[in-house]
Amino acid sequence: MIPPYSVAIVHYHLHRGGVTRVIHTASRCLTDAGVPHVILSGEPDESGAKLPVQVVEGLRYGTEPGGITGIQLVQAMRAAASSVLGPGPIVWHFHNHSLGRNRAMAEAVAILAEAGDAMILQFHDFAEDGRSQNYPVIADADTLYPHSPRIRHAFINSRDRANLISAGLPAARAALLPNAITAPAAVKPLEDAAEQALVLYPVRGIRRKNLGELFLLAALSPKGTRYAVTLGPDNIRWQAVHEEWMAFANDTGLPVMLDVVGRLSPAPKAQRSFAGWLRHSTHCITTSVAEGFGLGFLEPVAMGKPLLGRNLPAVTNDFAEAGIVPGRLYDRLLVPVGWVGMETLRQRLVRSLRSTLEAYGQAMSNEHLERSFAAMHHKGYLDFGNLPEDLQRQVIHRILAGEDADAVLVESRAETQPLRTWLRRTLKQTSPTAKPQDLAAYAPDAYAGRLQQLYSSVMDVKPAAPEYVPKHKVLNQFLKPGSFHFLCT
After folding, report:
1. CA 236, CA 213: separation in Å to the nearest integer?
2. What is the pLDDT of residue 1?
3. What is the SS3 string spanning 170-190?
């Protein structure tokens, strides 16, 4: 039965990336369910997929003053949606409206909230969470987080949901909407098993992906092990960091290859495509220090590849609730304090923490400094993943110079052992820790059901005046003392 409403999905663009994949999946789910819908985007869909897209130019990134106003954007969106969907009731499904990439979109959401429109506000990222360059765009927006019986805030992980609830969002208006997982096209396996490990990191090499950790692992892995990152960053902000790691790979000769897809081949006469690299890989890896949904933990399961790497409880706890053990994961990689120097680290922390807080309009308190500094100590060790890149390289140089390699420890579930020992054992294990059928909770049909339940929940109630979560309380949740991370700045 066709539902008594239509859906307008709204985003800044449809460039390749995680949010676009989520929108594409949602559109296909709605089509299969017979739900009339349109996708409103500031730019055309670069994928070429035949989806119901309408371009509304006022939705594209726009942070300079003097552009389209919120009311003008609402008028343009209403006209574009009605041209496809007709005059019936619409559920507006916004993605990342509060990210600080377009002030008019944030204003438009508040206008629609005041008008009593039904809305889903879905969050993949937050300007308050390691995106200080975005924050000034929405720093004075007091109507950023509206809520009412006809508005649901949808989160891709439980941590973000808990943060907004702690800031004042009623729990009944905060929904968990994890992404759907779709298995990629089947890749023909190699005829002969690989003799040595090829560990694939299927991401763009931006800063929070913690590329330095791959080099540490490479320095301590069994001889012949290779590591590869599929893509380089497309955002100019991260390209300098990426180029420094490219130079480090050349200088040290460590077996870490960056930006490989389309540029390098995984083996003689093998395709340079992603499928080619996936086919030749023996394992997948994640060393990221911050994720929204954590696709990198579940996609290897869908692809039948064993996963190793850094655990992120903020996202993997949700997977554990679904009964999924995505891989062989560690909580920290520990290096001796003396390899870095506490005074050096403290000076770097003072500069970086002050700069980050000031970007959010906050002064650095002694509590922020001391709790952040204390959080970095682990009984005489530091977590390699929370060191700035130059100090990561300093640690790796010590290992290459012959420092005691077994002084580097891996910590998993409060137990430690030499990282070199852990790697030798883990890389021998070529069976995944979960099967594709374990991902049923994240299947497209389950996602479609959650979407329709959300839409019905905001359509089946009467309009009411919205209230607003205090913006400063949301910011405080993401800037808690002790939560600072060098690679998330």
Report:
1. 22
2. 58
3. CHHHEEECCCCCCCCCCCCCC
How many Cα atoms occupy the beta-carbon half-sphere of 172 within 13 Å? 5
CB 201 within 8 A of CB 278: no
Q: In whole angstroms, what separates CA 232 from the centre of its chain?
A: 16
Helix (H) or strand (E) holding 144: none
Number of neighbouring beta carbons within 10 Å of residue 65: 7
The strand pairing partners of 335, in sequence order, are 382
Q: What are phi and psi of 109, to 5 degrees?
A: -60, -45
Task: Please report where in the chains the tokens 């990191």 appear, as a residue.
Answer: 201
> Quick one: which of 26, 4, 92, 8 has its CA closest to 448?
26
Distance CA 130, CA 479 (A): 9
pLDDT of residue 377: 92
Q: Which amino acid is at 262?
A: G
Amino acid identity for residue 415 in this structure: E
Alpha helices in 322-427 (DSSP H): 342-359, 366-375, 389-400, 419-426
pLDDT in tens, 21-46: 999 999 999 999 999 999 999 999 98
CA-CA distance, 344 to 404, in Å (whole number)?
21
Please list, residue by residue across 160-191, b when 16 or more beta carbons sit within 10 angstroms of its beta carbon and e when fewer do. Answer: bbebbbebebeeebbbebbbbbbeeeebeeee
pLDDT level of residue 186 (50, 70, 90 thresholds): low
Specify the pTM: 0.94
How far apart (Å, rounded) are the C-alpha atoms in residues 467 and 276? Answer: 52
Tokens of 353: 């923490």
Q: What is the pLDDT of residues 92-106, one digit of tens each?
A: 999 999 999 999 999
CB neighbour class for 317 (10 Å; exposed up to 12, middle 13-18, buried from 19)? middle
Amino acid symbol at 58: G
d(CA 23, CA 39): 8
Neighbours of 283 (CB within 10 A): 24
Task: Give start and end residues of each alpha helix (H) in 39-88.
Answer: 70-85
Q: Is a pLDDT exceeding 70 seen at residue 310?
A: yes
Whole-number Å distance between alpha carbons of 389 and 207: 9
Query: Going from the N-terminus, what domains does the chain have, and what CATH number goes with each?
Result: 6-180+443-480 (3.40.50.2000), 198-437 (3.40.50.2000)
Indicate the DSSP class of residue 195.
S
The DSSP call for residue 403 is -
Lookup result for tokens 């994640």: 286
DSSP helix/strand/coil, 41: strand
